[in-house]
């Protein structure tokens, strides 16, 4: 008999195996899971359509036919995993057919196998339930400052130095601005975003977590309201830097990717209704000629800084620093934190 376990009860030397399709896995999975799919995305789509529009029995038969051709390969993969782990823990979308059938087969072949109750859906329910509790237990130390002052770089250095950091932009795979996707590829789904936050807070070493001030929406993801409100009541630090430092930092960040110019131009065109067609044409021409300085400095001074400073005065800052270089600025924050 295949045992079913709640995600929150997992313990010991186990490995999570996500048997859903690659597309489902990419949208969001359980941290550390390995994807060994029973169906690819197209097979899943076909079987699902038959299930809903024709017949459950027909869908089951086609599913078995498709899966049977892969079982030997799947068995070999999982057999190798069983040499490293004491237990194989399977999950699918809702803990139903895919993980159930495969789990019973593996168990009958002598592999110690369990499946997660309600599958990925059960894990999501667990995350949604536990995330507010974890959030209640932390105090956020929030970095504020204009675009390009180095907030993200400071957070990375803080993390390297052993401090707890919640990198919302990193989790969203978006820099939180109109040009935020340049060079980064596909943004994170809301489900995966929330899961990353959960695991970071669960694994935090202290009750103080450094974080960057953000708008509630980052790319395609939204910061849960209870976290967003907790950030507002946190400890606030203002980070500043001169325009040359900011310009160089942004240019280095945004132009290190292949095809960066075309992506930058695509993003710039979305600003047309705010700063006019003539300015956009001028900026696009400058980008194509690698004259980034004028574009970056003007966008900061005329567009981003006025928008940011509108909200910057809402907070009392416990510390204000001027960044000359990232390492020194990070050290200032760490020294301040240790005596606070």
Rg for CA atoms? 24 Å
Q: What helical percentage do the residues reach?
A: 40-55%
CATH topology of the largest domain: Rossmann fold
Spatial strand order of the main sheet = 1-5-4-2-3
What is the total tally of β strands?
12
| Quaternary structure state of the chains depicted | single chain
* H/I helix tally: 16
The end-to-end span amounts to: 56 Å
What's the mean pLDDT score? 93
CATH architecture of the largest domain: 3-Layer(aba) Sandwich
The CATH class assignment of the largest domain is Alpha Beta
> What are the secondary-structure elements, in order, as H or E?
EEHEHHHEHEHEHEHHEEEHEHHHHHEH
Protein structure class: alpha/beta
What fraction strand?
A: 5-15%
- Poorly predicted segments: none
Q: Tell me, briefly, the overall form.
A: globular
Main sheet, how many strands, which sense, barrel? Answer: 5 strands, parallel
The tally of structural domains comes to 2
Protein name: tRNA 2-selenouridine(34) synthase MnmH
Pfam families: AAA_SelU, Rhodanese
InterPro entries: AAA_SelU (IPR058840), P-loop_NTPase (IPR027417), Rhodanese-like_dom (IPR001763), Rhodanese-like_dom_sf (IPR036873), SelU (IPR017582)
GO molecular function, one term: tRNA 2-selenouridine synthase activity
Structural features, described:
The structure is a single chain. With 340 residues, the protein is α/β, with parallel strands linked by helices. The chain has 16 helices and twelve strands. It has a five-stranded parallel sheet. It has a five-stranded parallel sheet with strand order 7-8-6-11-12, sandwiched between helices. A two-stranded antiparallel sheet has the order 9-10. The protein has helices spanning 22-27, 41-53, 56-68, 71-82, 97-108, 119-136, 151-160, 168-172, 190-202, 225-232, 243-254, 260-268, 272-275, 277-288, 292-312, 326-339, and strands at 3-5, 14-18, 34-35, 87-91, 113-116, 139-144, 165-166, 208-212, 217-218, 221-222, 235-240, 319-322. It folds into two domains: 3-126, 3-Layer(aba) Sandwich (Oxidized Rhodanese, domain 1); 137-339, Rossmann fold (3-Layer(aba) Sandwich). α2 packs antiparallel against α3 and α12 (260-268) runs antiparallel to α14 (277-288).
């Amino acid at each position: 008999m295949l045992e079913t376990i709640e995600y929150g009860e997992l313990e010991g030397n186990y490995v999570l195996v996500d048997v859903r399709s690659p597309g489902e896995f990419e949208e969001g999975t359980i941290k550390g899971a390995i994807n060994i799919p029973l169906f690819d995305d197209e097979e899943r789509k076909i079987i699902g359509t038959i299930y809903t529009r024709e017949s459950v029995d027909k869908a089951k038969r086609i599913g078995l036919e498709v899966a049977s051709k892969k079982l030997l390969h799947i068995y070999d993969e999982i057999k190798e995993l069983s040499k490293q782990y004491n237990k194989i823990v399977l999950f699918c979308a809702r803990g139903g057919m895919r993980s159930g059938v495969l789990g019973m087969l593996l168990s009958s072949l002598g592999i110690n196998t369990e499946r997660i109750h309600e599958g990925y859906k059960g894990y999501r329910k667990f995350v949604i339930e536990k995330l507010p509790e974890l959030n209640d237990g932390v105090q956020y130390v929030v970095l504020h400052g204009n675009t390009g002052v180095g907030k993200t770089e400071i957070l990375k250095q803080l993390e390297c130095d052993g401090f707890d950091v919640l990198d919302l932009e990193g989790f969203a795979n978006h820099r939180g601005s109109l040009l935020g996707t340049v060079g980064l590829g596909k943004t994170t789904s809301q489900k995966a975003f929330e899961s990353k936050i959960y695991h970071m807070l669960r694994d935090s070493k202290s009750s103080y977590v450094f974080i960057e001030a953000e708008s509630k929406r980052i790319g395609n993801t939204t910061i849960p309201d209870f976290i967003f409100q907790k950030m507002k009541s946190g400890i606030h630090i203002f980070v500043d830097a001169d325009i040359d430092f900011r310009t160089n930092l942004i240019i280095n960040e945004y132009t290190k990717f292949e095809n960066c110019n075309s992506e930058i131009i695509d993003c710039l065109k979305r600003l047309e209704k705010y700063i006019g067609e003539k300015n956009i044409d001028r900026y696009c021409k400058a980008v194509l000629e690698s004259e980034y300085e004028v574009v970056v400095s003007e966008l900061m001074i005329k567009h981003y800084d006025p928008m940011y400073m509108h909200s910057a005065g809402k907070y009392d800052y416990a510390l204000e620093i001027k960044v000359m270089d990232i390492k020194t600025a990070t050290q200032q924050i760490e020294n301040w934190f240790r005596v606070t």
